[in-house]
């Protein structure tokens, strides 16, 4: 079962309801809200984040922050996406070429992905799919959906992840926010335009480290 979430609005620091202590935009506790550091950035290549239910509302998660920072992004929540009508319609759209970010031996570099588009001879728009979950859960999500397995895969190459507040399975493991930044800044060739994503990421890490240091005192 999946649930799609639309693009995030530009509203700032709005609680879910009168009793809530959480911001609906960055999904963090109001006292730890990061909306002051969120800058809306236009992206030409659409992103689709397939988010494991365990990551929804996770205080150290970054998918909601990435979604709040971009103009063309959608979060789909679930574990098995084989029956997700919206996602399957997208994958079958002849005007769209989807790629899933999954760095295995068969994955294309972004340069190779561009060549792949050119060789197709079609006028299509690239959409990128990111899996948001632990490495093990992301693997199960990918392999539960045959349509996802058939997509061409892409890799960002060796990039040392800077996500220091969660345990990483390997050095090059990136948070969803980091992956979105590196992917879009390289694909669209404008890293300066996407720099606010990493500024936000820096504030998230700093906030958690400050909190941890305060608890140790």
UniProtKB/TrEMBL annotation:
Q: Does the keyword Transferase apply?
A: yes
Q: Where is the DTW domain?
A: 19-213
Q: Which InterPro entries match?
A: DTW, DTWD2/TAPT
Alphabetic keyword roster: S-adenosyl-L-methionine, Transferase, tRNA processing
Q: Which domain of life is it from?
A: Bacteria
Q: What is its EC number?
A: 2.5.1.25
From the UniProt record, which GO molecular function terms apply?
A: tRNA-uridine aminocarboxypropyltransferase activity
Pfam families per record: DTW
Q: Which family does it belong to?
A: Belongs to the TDD superfamily. DTWD2 family.
Q: What is this protein called?
A: tRNA-uridine aminocarboxypropyltransferase
Per the UniProt record, the source organism is Aeromonas caviae (Aeromonas punctata)
Question: What is the organism lineage in this UniProt record?
Answer: Bacteria, Pseudomonadati, Pseudomonadota, Gammaproteobacteria, Aeromonadales
């Amino acid at each position: 079962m999946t649930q799609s979430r639309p693009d995030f609005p530009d509203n700032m620091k709005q609680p879910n309801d009168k009793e809530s202590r959480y911001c609906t935009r960055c999904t963090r506790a109001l006292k730890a809200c990061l909306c002051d550091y969120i800058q809306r950035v236009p992206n030409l290549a659409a992103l689709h984040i397939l988010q494991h239910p365990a990551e929804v509302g996770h205080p150290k998660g970054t998918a909601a922050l990435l979604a709040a920072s971009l103009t063309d992004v959608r979060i789909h929540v679930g574990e098995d996406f084989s029956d997700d009508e919206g996602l399957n319609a997208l994958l079958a759209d002849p005007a769209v070429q989807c790629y899933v970010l999954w760095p295995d031996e068969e994955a294309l570099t972004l340069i190779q992905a561009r060549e792949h588009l050119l060789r197709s001879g079609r006028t299509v728009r690239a959409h990128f799919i990111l899996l948001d979950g632990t490495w093990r859960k992301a693997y199960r999500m990918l392999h539960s959906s045959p349509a996802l397995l058939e997509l061409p895969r892409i890799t960002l190459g060796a990039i040392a992840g800077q996500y220091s507040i969660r345990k990483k399975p390997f050095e090059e493991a990136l948070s969803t926010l980091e992956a979105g930044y590196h992917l879009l800044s390289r694909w669209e060739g404008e890293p300066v335009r996407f720099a606010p994503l990493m500024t936000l990421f820096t504030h998230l890490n700093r906030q958690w480290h400050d909190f941890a240091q305060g608890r140790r005192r």
